[in-house]
Amino acid sequence: MTKLPEYEIHAIRYATRDAIRREHFIGGDPHESPMPMDYFVWVITGPAGAIVMDLGFTAEMAKERKRIFLRCPIESLKLVGVDARDVNDVIVSHMHYDHAGNLGAFPKARFHIQAREMAYATGKYMRYSKPGHSYHVEDVVDMVRLNFKGRVEMHEGMVEIAPGITLHPAPGHADGLQVARVHTKRGWVVLASDATHYYEHIMKDRLFMTAFHIGEMLDSYKVVRKLAPSARHIIPGHDPHVMKEYEPPKPSLAGAVVRLDVAPTGPAPDFPESH
After folding, report:
1. Which of 195, 239, 9 has its CA nearest to residue 96?
2. Range of the domain at 222
3. Minimal CA–CA distance to 41: which of 71, 7, 17?
4. Closest C-alpha to 231, from 194, 259, 204
5. pTM for the predicted model, two decimal places
6. List of E strands, 221-263
7. Is residue 33 part of a domain?
8. Separation between Cα atoms, residue 176 and residue 184, nearest integer Å
9. Which residues lie closer than 8 Å to 10 by C-beta, 6 or more apart?
10. Where do the H-state alpha helices sit in the chain?
11. Interval 206-217: pLDDT, tens
């Protein structure tokens, strides 16, 4: 039996925003305490080079959406030794504005998405303000252009894109969202992206405010839990706790980058008591 590669994974925090708890749960929340949201891109590094998962947004988009822009997500790849111009494969979990910007920064990459997400992002529901608001039309058009150039791999269901890296549909938040399962020295790590924005969503079966299908969102929690050896092998898409739980690769990168293929040393996530 062939031994799978053991990849390194880094999370790069490029933006943040202030928020309170009731803004993140369908049905609200009894607590009015702060619940900020962080924005990440992820870098998977192995024998064949680097694979980037999700692309963040630009400084202009941060201003338009009133997000706090900390650093350019594309330039920040260099913090972990990666140049976007050299990347051959990019995983796009879904095409919301904070995950599918900066497509043009990767001149030779193939882009891996679910065919269902491309259909959703270019389909009839984009005429409605609620689902359409989560997408930036220019990003969607850019992806269509890339497809005409033969650079978009539209998958239909689970697929292995490299030994030890598999993609799995996890719809609900968006119709074609996918997660990545990556083999590391601490076992399989699941980059859940927005299949669960915060640990609390998946651990307590709570629903994030932006949802295309709430039943599928709950089913996708089950998918992610099944893919991961434990809750601490699941990496949520926007939880600031990730930066507290994992260590930076070197002290100078504290607050900007953490390494996810090494077991967490910080505290496990804690949630307020339900009322």
Report:
1. 195
2. 8-259
3. 71
4. 204
5. 0.96
6. 234-236, 257-259
7. yes
8. 26
9. 42, 43, 45, 80, 249, 257, 258, 259, 260
10. 59-65, 115-121, 129-133, 137-148, 199-204, 214-227, 241-245
11. 999 999 999 999
What's the full length of the chain, in residues? 275
Residue 167 lies in a domain: yes
- Report if residue 272 sits inside a domain: no
Report which residue type is found at 245.
E
Residue 159 to residue 165: CA distance in whole angstroms: 9
Give CA–CA dist 4/2, Å, rounded.
Answer: 6
**CATH code, 25:** 3.60.15.10
Express each pLDDT in 22-54 by its tens digit: 999 999 988 889 999 999 999 999 987 999 999
Cα angle 250, 256, 258; round to 5: 55
Residues 6+ apart with CB under 8 A from 102: 55, 56, 57, 58, 73, 74, 84
Q: Write out the two tokens for 226.
A: 């099944």
Q: Number of folded domains in the chain?
A: 1
* HSE, side-chain direction, 13 A CA sphere, residue 65: 22
Radius of gyration from C-alpha coordinates of the chain: 17
188 lies in some domain:
yes
